[in-house]
Automatic annotation (TrEMBL), chain A:
SUPFAM superfamilies: P-loop containing nucleoside triphosphate hydrolases. It is found in: Cell membrane. Pfam families: ABC_tran, DrrA1-3_C. This is ABC transporter ATP-binding protein. GO terms for biological process: response to antibiotic. GO terms for molecular function: ATP binding; ATP hydrolysis activity. Belongs to the ABC transporter superfamily. GO terms for cellular component: plasma membrane. Signal peptide: none annotated.
TrEMBL record, chain B:
This is ABC transporter permease. The chain crosses the membrane at residues 26-43, 80-100, 131-152, 164-185, 192-211, 239-260, 296-315, 342-364, 395-418, 430-449, 456-475, 503-524. Keywords: Membrane, Transmembrane, Transmembrane helix. It comes from Geodermatophilus sabuli.
């Protein structure tokens, strides 16, 4: 089995809304795959189709070599799921919910359960009614991580966790990868994907816009540079691949396309470089490149330019 | 900002917002209550249009303990208007009490449990404002219902003064249950428990007044429903009981405010205790989960229906007394023994209706779980759609069977003790069981709706229950074409013990129920899971 998840041309409509519009997703066995996109781009809908909770209108969906709609029960024995919005039974304690979900999935490891409860600092005796969003998320995380699965489907699992817990979560995902398990991690927290993922797929408006390893995707992005030179730099703006050039007090700041990096560094050499900082492209910038204009139009995310103006 | 102080700041805004949120549901409640009165008024005036008809009616009602237990005090039956009030007031009180309970709970505890109150209270809204706005909203709905009933009854030709008082008595009962709900919503931290406790209060109030009305003692004065009916519209036209209701409503509201001041936002009066850190052995399957989620409600229904069965059994003796004391009745009706059987047949049918209401609420629990997003984590495990919906269906079908048996056995046990005939226990338990296929058809309808039309399921399923209740209870007093009755599964159930038991209609009902369950499971397997 090469692919844990293989989705091609997936379409899902709700009334007039086309939530998924020909989405493709390929997750190899044993990798941690980031599933990225802004709110409302179709991440959770895709995951619900993968779990057989929603029926695909068109396209091909294979999960662990099965049909998630037809073989839902058999496939679910081999996967663990953390929903993006965890709702629990108000009168049932966290510990009971963990046991119930674990048993329904096919049994969980009591030692792992105890260890995870301890690490995530979760009181299992509290009724779910009294849990905060973060604690409800921990209940779902402990139930999923303590179960023995081939595939872990995690839908924005850290959106309610504090940074300390987020670091713990990252540890746990690395542990899963070391054990050879497959993880599909949906997120709009890019640092998380950067820290954990072997490959990412970026979706937007229900369609995949980019897919590949972070290194493959980085060549599409720009490196940010700040340079201090002995003599004022000239001619930089004329070089291809240089963007957003600005200077103050003898320092110049600019972004440069990866394939133009060599030429730019050679050019700078002629002005006596005193200091040079370069920031590798973050997924944040990759996002902005892909969504920047649209998001600005929608007023969802403001680009630095928009903030300044 | 309210001029009356910071604790009430924002009440007006919240009240307007409440009216906006309930712009559909409140008019429906008011319309149902008003239409019940209109229908009863028109049909009673047609049925009892001669003094002889009215006399015969009075005689049969005066000796029918089941009707008195169901309806209220048998007063004013010498006029058609009095007969209308007697026949319909208890049902309108039930409708208005449900309206008051759901409106008050929805805008207090339910909002608080969902976290919406927190959002609202973080703005310039006083601590008492959400509660006051909810109570005012429910109170306004009660007043509008009262006016609607008064106007509708007058318009159909009944005396104006009595009509206004009939409306006022119903509205006054609504005000008391608004107050009761406001208090209960402070005490418990859960919306579900609020509904359960207020429902139990209504049940106890109903039984107290039923016993009081049959025995003719002062027990009616312990029940807010008894107060409302003590107005005696069209005969006594008493105003004092209305004042009693109003004072009770205001006192309960003051109590609710006092309790609100003594608790934290989001909590009840009782602090939640820690529960078990691990799940018990039984909580390992979809059925185990369904049982866990529904056991509290089932236990409540079981206690209620058993008590009701005992009360019905005990009141059967009054049937004989009423019959002996009523010379008019003896001219119209057969011997006392068959009169007791007729009474028992009616009470068994009423218990079957209540078991049907349980079955529908139990089935709709599945849809509620799905809408709240709690089906998603379960169906993402190795749990099939069939097992998940089937487990809630099992709770509805077996649970309603338990309720039917318990209520029948309770009545049978009391009758066996009273008559010295042990055979009454199996006889009445069996007679109760004859209603089970009809109850299962109701459950099947709710299941099929949940499987095929999830968004409309709750509304349509409860409408079906209301239909069956109306056709069963008003079968004789309303002059409908036959097919209207025939659509109700209870119409196909032989009215044991007065009729002999026939298996064929029961088997047919069971087959219909099974077909509906199959349809539901097939529909649910084929559709998307719908959250919200």
């Amino acid at each position: 089995m090469e692919s844990a998840i293989a989705v091609a041309g997936l379409v899902k409509t709700f009334g007039d809304t086309r939530a998924l519009d020909g989405l493709d997703l390929e997750v190899s066995t044993g990798e941690v795959h980031g599933f990225l996109g802004p709110n409302g781009s179709g991440k959770s809908t895709t995951i619900r189709v993968l779990l057989g909770l929603l029926r695909a209108d068109a396209g091909r969906v294979r999960l662990l070599d099965g049909d998630p709609w037809r073989d839902a029960v058999a496939l679910h024995r081999r996967l663990a799921y953390v929903p993006g919005d965890v709702t629990l039974w108000p009168g049932i304690t966290g510990g009971e919910a963990i046991d119930l979900l674990g048993r329904l999935q096919g049994g969980l490891d009591p030692a792992r359960r105890a260890e995870l409860l301890d690490r995530f600092d979760l009181d299992p005796r509290k009724k779910a009614r009294t849990y905060s969003k973060g604690n409800r998320q921990k209940v779902a995380l402990v139930a999923a991580l303590a179960s023995d699965a081939d595939l872990y489907v995690l839908d924005e699992p850290t959106s309610g966790l504090d940074p300390l817990m987020e670091a713990l979560f990252q540890d746990e995902v690395r542990r899963l990868r070391a054990e050879g398990r497959t993880v599909l991690l949906s997120s709009h927290i890019l640092a998380e994907a950067e820290a954990l993922c072997d490959r990412v797929s970026i979706i937007r408006h229900g369609r995949t816009v980019q897919s590949g390893s972070l290194r493959e995707l980085r060549h599409l992005t720009r490196t940010s540079m700040a340079v201090e030179t002995a003599r004022p730099v000239t001619g930089l703006a004329d070089l291809p691949g240089v963007h957003d050039l600005r200077s103050d007090d003898g320092r110049v700041h600019f972004d440069v396309d990866t394939d133009a990096l060599d030429a730019v560094v050679r050019h700078l050499g002629g002005f006596g470089v005193r200091s040079l900082t370069s920031t590798p492209p973050t997924l944040e910038e990759l996002f902005l490149r892909h969504y920047g204009e649209d998001l600005t139009e929608n007023g969802l995310v403001r680009t630095p330019e928009a903030v300044r103006s | 900002m309210s001029p009356r102080g910071p604790a009430l700041a924002g009440t007006g805004t919240l009240l307007r917002f409440g009216l906006r949120r309930d712009r559909l549901r409140l008019p429906v409640w008011v319309a149902v209550a008003t239409l019940l009165v209109v229908t009863q008024s028109i049909s009673s005036q047609t049925l009892y249009d001669s003094p002889e008809d009215l006399a015969a009616y009075r005689a049969s009602i005066g000796s029918n303990a089941a009707t008195i237990a169901l309806a209220g005090p048998p007063v004013g039956l010498d006029t058609v208007a009095g007969a209308v009030a007697f026949e319909i007031s208890a049902f309108v009180v039930l409708v208005v009490a449900l309206m008051a309970m759901s409106t008050t709970a929805r805008h207090t505890r339910a909002d608080e449990e969902a976290g919406r109150t927190e959002l609202v209270r973080a703005t310039r809204v006083g601590r008492h404002a959400p509660l006051l706005a909810a109570v005012l909203l429910s109170g306004m709905a009660c007043v509008v219902t009262a006016l609607g009933i008064g106007a509708a009854a007058t318009a159909t030709g009944l005396p104006a003064r009595g009509s206004v008082l009939l409306g006022a008595s119903v509205g006054a009962a609504g005000l008391v249950f608004t107050g009761v709900t406001a208090v209960v919503a402070q005490v418990t931290g859960s919306t579900r428990a609020t509904y359960g406790i207020v429902g139990a209060v209504f049940g106890v109030a109903f039984v107290l007044r039923a016993v009081g009305d049959i025995e003719g003692n002062g027990l009616v004065w312990t029940s807010p429903i008894g107060w409302a009916q003590a107005v005696h519209p069209y005969s006594g036209d008493r105003v004092a009981p209305l004042v009693l209701c109003l004072v009770a409503g205001v006192t309960l509201f003051a109590l609710a405010v006092a309790l609100l001041d003594r608790r934290d936002l989001g909590a009840g009066l009782v602090a939640p205790r820690p529960g078990p850190a691990t799940a018990p052995r039984g909580l390992h399957s979809p059925l185990g989960l369904a049982l866990r989620l529904q056991r509290g409600a089932l236990a409540g229904w079981a206690v209620g229906l058993t008590l009701l069965g005992l009360v019905y059994g005990a009141l059967a003796e009054s049937v004989e007394t009423l019959f002996a004391d009523n010379p008019e009745a003896r001219a119209f009706l057969p011997d006392a023994a068959s009169l007791v059987d007729a009474y028992l047949a009616t009470t068994l049918a009423i218990n079957a209706l209540l078991a049907g209401a349980y079955a529908v609420s139990s089935v709709l629990r599945a849809r509620g779980e799905e809408a709240a997003g709690r089906a998603e984590p379960v169906l993402s495990t190795a749990t099939s759609r069939t097992a998940w919906l089937g487990s809630h269906a099992t709770m509805a079908l077996l649970g309603s069977a338990v309720l039917v048996v318990l209520s029948g056995a309770a009545t049978g046990a009391v009758r066996a003790a009273a008559t010295g005939d042990v055979g009454q226990l199996p006889r009445l338990t069996g007679a109760a069981l004859a209603h089970l296929p009809a109850v299962w058809v109701l459950a099947g309808v709710a299941l099929a709706l949940s499987g095929l039309l999830p968004r409309a399921a709750a509304a349509v399923a409860w409408a079906a229950v209301a239909y069956v209740v109306v056709t069963t209870v008003f079968a004789e007093s309303l002059d409908w074409p036959g097919w209207v009755d025939d659509l109700s599964p209870l119409a196909w159930t032989p009215t044991v013990p007065i009729e002999t038991l026939r298996i064929a209609p029961l088997a047919t009902l069971a087959v219909v129920a099974a077909a509906l369950v199959t349809l539901a499971l097939a529909g649910f397997r084929r559709r998307d899971l719908l959250v919200g």
